[in-house]
Amino acid sequence: MIRLEGVGKTFSDGTEAIKDLSLEIKEGEFCVLLGPSGCGKTTTMKTINRLIPLTTGKIYIDGVDTSRLDQNDLRRGIGYAIQNIGLFPHQTVEENICTVPRLLKWPKPKQHARAQELLHLVGMDPDTFLRRYPSELSGGQQQRVGVARCLGADPPILLLDEPFGAIDPITRSRLQDEFLKIQAKIKKTIAFVTHDINEAIKMGNRIALMRDGELVQFADPATLLGSPKDGFVRDFVGGDRVLKGLRLLKAKDVMQEPPLTVKVGESPMQVKAHMEKERMRWAMLTEAEGQFLGWITCDDLQVSRCIRDTITPPTVTASPDTPLNEALSMMFDSAIGTLAILDDGERLVGVLSFEIIHDVLGRQTREFQPEPCGEEL
Amino acid sequence: MWVQAWNYVLKYPDKIGGWVLQHLYIVLVANAAAAVFGVLIGIYISGKGRERIAETVIYFASIMMTVPSLALYGVLMGILSSLHLPSIGFLPVVIALTLYGLLPIIRNTYTAIREVDPAMIEAGRGMGMSEMQILTKVKLPLGVPVIMAGLRQAVVMNIGIAAIGAYIGAGGLGQPIFRGIANWRPDLIVVGAMCVSLLAIVADLLMGGLEWVTTPKGVRIRRKG
């Protein structure tokens, strides 16, 4: 647990980077420090491992005042990754990962085992990569090694300064997903600096939004999006904050039962009868075990043909863990405007439709805003 | 003249070998000293908050380079004799060459350390390296190619300047040159001059090899790419 109490930092040139900031990051919490450039978020993060000394205030880690610790001991106990990755070009991947274990004088075999374990964790093959040099890696691989390095000595706390900043959006998104999976396993206490609201919403348990060295709002993503404290927060999270809120929900949270499914064995006649009875213009065809095959529309259904020939195969499908913002976007690609949700075994488990999303948005907006706020609704 | 010079080489290889060894010895001792002092001074002045000192040191080292070697020998002879040390021969020449060798070494060490990517240094510091560890584990290994280039420059330059050392009795390849001038023996001048040039070229190649060998592998790969 990290507790900042009345932390202030004034640089020698008189700029007040942080003003009387108090904040508590709970054990195992993923806390995002968010804000525009120059808001003091990076400075705040660097005061935690004393890369930047405090002017006023105290920082406690697990109740211990950090200013009483030796600064190198303190830093060796905190994982640290920076924006430009900062891998040492003259050291192999293994040597880079073992930077802190080496400083802590771990025995060699233990270091080697740790490097292998960590490379594996970040999804790289130890046999291929341990002996490579950073210059022989792609940008994404370097970022992964950067993450592995900050986990080197298994520190309980991680400080991450835009660790996915310098890579292309596709790789970034994949690394974010992977990092979330890793975090679910290792449950570190994390302070994560970013200026990207989308990244903050995706990654953080709680978001500390800063401006001009002050903490403006410290809340979980849903609250930040739903009840922005003031105009600055509202502007910062963006006019599409209700849509951004969609990413906080997954398909499985709101999906509904498929309105009408038919098994592959049924005859076209029977299917047609079903549709008429349910007043549906389409149905969803599945195998006997539930694997989704495609859509059947009323118009395609001809009595003479086998039912398999009449289906429109699904162009897009989602999984129960697909975030709603992606699901919504997929729905525009779906022939029916309804999205089939399939589990790992391709079995149909639910559907999402525009009405469902509409209801969710309406509900969220109402929940988020106890007091009506005219100009937005 | 060329034929005579070649005949001289064939006739007195041992003599020439002796001069070459003497010459090399002077240059190596001087450059070893210059390397030690130069790198240490370079490290010192690259420290935080020493920009003014660095400017001054590099300024004086540059001035040192502009002093003609004969004048420097003269000054050193005066100083050494007042200290009751040998004022001619090996010692003043080695001291002069050391002083000449300092500038490229100090300047390159300073630049090498100053130009290490700040992200590396911050990463090292953030992971709990002491300043000493940052210097020895990060700054110096990354600076090796630049530091070695300075050393290479110093060695090649001093091979030339060392020839003048023969004038104050230090021996080396300056000897045939000065003797040739005094007795109008062009063949001797050519022998001396060619040997100095060859030595400089060979030394340059060797130092280039040394630079390559001492550069950390990861840095080498990066430069190629």
Q: Helices, strands, pairings?
A:
The complex is a heterodimer of chains A (377) and B (225).
Chain A: E1 2-10, E2 16-25, E3 30-34, H1 41-48, E4 56-61, E5 64-65, H2 71-76, E6 78-81, H3 93-97, H4 99-103, H5 108-121, H6 126-129, H7 139-150, E7 157-161, H8 169-186, E8 189-194, H9 197-203, E9 206-211, E10 214-219, H10 221-226, H11 231-237, H12 241-245, H13 251-254, E11 261-263, H14 268-278, E12 282-286, E13 292-297, E14 317-318, H15 324-331, E15 338-342, E16 348-353, H16 354-368
Parallel strand pairs in A: 3-8, 3-9, 6-7, 7-8, 11-12, 14-15
Antiparallel strand pairs in A: 1-2, 1-4, 4-5, 9-10, 12-13, 15-16
Chain B: H1 2-11, H2 13-45, H3 51-66, H4 69-82, H5 90-114, H6 118-126, H7 131-162, H8 174-183, H9 186-214, H10 217-224
Helix pairs in contact in B: 1-9, 2-5, 2-7, 3-5, 4-5, 5-7, 6-7, 7-9, 8-9
Descriptive keywords:
heterodimer, A: 377 residues, alpha/beta, Rossmann fold, CBS-domain, 2 domains, 6-stranded mixed β-sheet, 4-stranded antiparallel β-sheet, 16 strands, 36% helix, 23% strand, disordered C terminus, B: 225 residues, mainly alpha, MetI-like fold, 10 helices, 83% helix, 0% strand, globular
